Amino acid sequence: MTVPPSPESSRPEPVGQGLSVAAAADEFAELLPPTRRALLHRLAVGQSEGRTPSMTGAVIRDGRAVWTGGLGSVDGEVPHGDVQYRIGSLTKTFVAVLVLRLRDEGLLRLEDPVGRYLEDTPVPDATLAQLLSHSAGLAAEPRGPWWERTTGELRPEPADLFGERPQRVPAGRHHYSNLGYALLGALVERLRDGVPWGEVLRREVLEPLGMSRTTLLPEAPYAHGWAVHPWADALLPEPAEDTGLMGPAGQLWSTVQDLCRWAAFLLRGDARVLGAASLAELRTPAVPPESGTWEAGYGLGVQMLRREGRLLVGHQGSMPGFLAALWTDAEEDLAGVVLTNCTSGPAAGAVAADLIGIVRTHEPRIPEPWRPLPEPLDDPELLALTGPWYWGANPHALRLRAGRGLELTPLSGTGRGARFRAESDGTWTGLDGYYEGETLRVGRDRDGAVSHLDLGTFVFTRGPYEPSAPVPGGVDAEGWRT
Question: How many CB atoms are located within 10 Å of the residue 166 CB?
């Protein structure tokens, strides 16, 4: 196959609501020529080494596409941003948003068993949270022939999806299940009065975000899916069936332009679709790790990956003839998207992650300008809480944030940090990490003066093992010695 030269576009396209508040960022909205060349080179290597008929990609920064590129051929032309590809399991991120919308409307709770809403399911005790996070232990695939290559008419009813052993591992363990998302799609239809999940998605998510080129079935222009012979440069067309009830697991077709909008939403949110708190919940590991040693995980409909010390959130997708990947880096407000029309070979996920890494390395994010707190400091005692605190002999710093919030930061490599939200009763609640959900209280002595902090039973004092503070177990009477 002849590979035509690939044009690229570096002109930013608005894909999200709002831009960076840093005025200086506008001057550097367009990527520099060396960065654009490095991005195109990485895409070209991915297309060439992956031996795929075409590959297209994009980088999103500050809510807009700052680079798009395409290589190879779709119907004799270099693919552009409006060409549809099948995105496979990226579909699951859309279904998860629909379920969280229902939760936010009070129509369900994530801890509810699916049997409360769907009759005759063989796994009635599986909770909605477990289905979203692939921790219900369900079988990975439906019964019958390979569902991705066969028509959904072979499984016309939900009972046709499950075999003799619908649950393969104990609930609570991660076991990826396409079946779980088939149930979630049926749940959406049940709670939306029988409206098909794809129509619900179009009305409630795609239209508000301007994603008119994301559809259940392909609409021209679109790429055809191919298999590439492993030992010869030859192609075999792959089928593109309507998978019916299994559609919520991987049915959608989309474009680079539309997925740029989706990436911007996953990074920044949109109140018309999903609130910021629910979006943050979607990005939280289903079973939060207690250390930073994990390399991959799953939230509520999103995959998580640690790469070069950074947390990437998004999803990869595959269907016969297609591979797709979308990763976001919230810390850098960056995202990478890659689409390709080949069943196997191209490392779409690695290429998408590398696109993010190239921009982060070549053009690191310009920090937002420092500003003082928006509210007046009318509580001297609150300000007096800030500064150094010690858990035992381990030093920490406590800083005041907006809205009377606090942030605890370890000053050595072994401590735990967290942000805290102020509550009306004078306490604070942990927002992340080990202390998420834990209560921070101010301890006082008999005279009412602040003596210590109590954080989920951990006592922080103004000095290392301060004798006057109520340190559990007490402090040796002879004190520090050499």
Answer: 19
Of 422, 402, 406, residue with least CA distance to 460 = 406
Retrieve residue 23's tokens: 């005025």
Main-chain dihedrals φ then ψ at residue 440, nearest 5 degrees: -105, 120
Backbone angles phi, psi at 403, to 5 degrees: 65, 30
Tens of pLDDT along 386-433? Answer: 999 999 999 999 999 999 999 999 998 778 999 999 999 999 999 988
Decide: 317 and 259 in contact? Cβ < 8 Å: no
C-alpha to C-alpha distance for 319 and 326, rounded to whole angstroms: 15
Q: What is the DSSP letter of 352?
A: H
Interacting residues of 374 by C-beta distance below 8 A, sequence separation 6+: 402
Give the whole-angstrom CA distance, residue 378 versus residue 156. 65
User: What are the CA-CA distances from residue 329 to residues 18, 178, 190, 289, 303 (Å)?
Assistant: 18, 26, 34, 19, 12
CB 312 within 8 A of CB 360: no
Beta bridge partners of 460: 391, 453
Q: Are 290 and 296 in contact (CB under 8 A)?
A: no
pLDDT of 93 reads 98
Residue with more model confidence, 326 or 20 = 326
**Residue 233 to residues 4, 323, 351: CA-CA distances in angstroms?**
17, 19, 22
Residue 107 gets which letter from DSSP? S
Distance between CA atoms of residues 226 and 344, nearest Å: 9
CA neighbor of 253 nearest in space, from 11, 85, 34: 85
Q: Retrieve residue 226's tokens.
A: 């191919």
3-state secondary structure 129-184: HHHHCCCCCECCCCCCCCHHHCCHHHCCCHHHCCCCCCECCCCCCCCCCHHHHHHH
Q: What is the pLDDT of residues 64-92, one digit of tens each?
A: 999 999 999 999 999 999 999 999 999 99
pTM of the complete model: 0.85
Cis peptide before 221 (omega within 30 of 0): yes
Q: Residue 221, SS3?
A: coil
Q: At what angle do helices 348-362 and 33-50 cross, to 10 degrees?
A: 160
CA nearest 4: which of 44, 50, 39?
44
